[in-house]
Give the backbone structure.
Amino acid sequence: MSVCKSVAWILIALLILLGGLIAPFGDILGTKIGKARFSILRLRPKKTATIITIITGGFISSISIGLLILVSEEFRQRLFVDIPFLQKTLDESKKALIPLQEERKKLEDKINQKEKELNQLKNNIKEFRRGNIVIKRGQTLFIAEINSSSNIKKKLTKIFNEADKFVRKIVIPINKEAKNILLWRPSDITNIETITANGGNWILLIKSATNVLKGDNFVFVSPDLLENKLIVKRGDVITSSIHDQSDLNLKSINLKIKSLLRETRDEIKSKGSQVIEINTNRNFVKKIRDFVQENQNIKFKLEVVSLRDSKTIEPIVVEINILKITP
């Protein structure tokens, strides 16, 4: 290490000495050329002398770099190996940065969208505090069952009148003479008629397309047509979970039951149910508590079982059974 340092210092001293020797030479050469009024490429002697001086300076730099390349192996390594490697690494880093920039753009777009939603929510909260909004955007205003065997046009007219009457009581309860404040697109009606003409049983949800203030003269709605299908049958196990003996106490059991009911709501929703809450048979609570007190050091299974057949908008009624798992 000390030898490398000594060589470096010697090299620096030689470069300084060489620069000191060549610099006066260049200056003398430029002066003599200027006095001799020598001209290159028809330039004025003064400019010719300046060019000669510049060439001499470049010659000094070239000799300095040449000496460094000749004497210093480390300099050669840096110049011919490390710099191309660093350039290649820089290019690869730029390529790797492109997906990150795209991901950043997507993230910024999501943040902007969330900010818009937050601002909208803040505005809605302000309206609620003032007591102006009586119907929220996306709120279901009316639910009706449509059977394909009935007269669809007549049925839709009846549904519209009943929904209109219901909404008027919310939005303009004072104006008893107002009618037809619901507005929906004719294309929505045509679409409903086309779908229901193919047969089957259907559920029509009439939802508000905008926030509605008390006293508004019109309410824009969008109908949503769903198949009235069987979601669960009586005796179906909707969800279940297995637990070990460490969970067998009253506090943990209550947490497991709440978690299982949340999973059950998600499951019936994925099947198309429009029910928000699940009704439970409370008798299962005592049965589970008795089971916990009587059994220790075992594995057990919790099952959410349907107590009735339930279709798209019908209530979901369940009980929770606890079963011993034998090794």
Observations:
- The longest strand covers residues 316-325.
- Residues 134-228 form one domain.
- The radius of gyration is 43 Å.
- The first helix runs from residue 2 to 35.
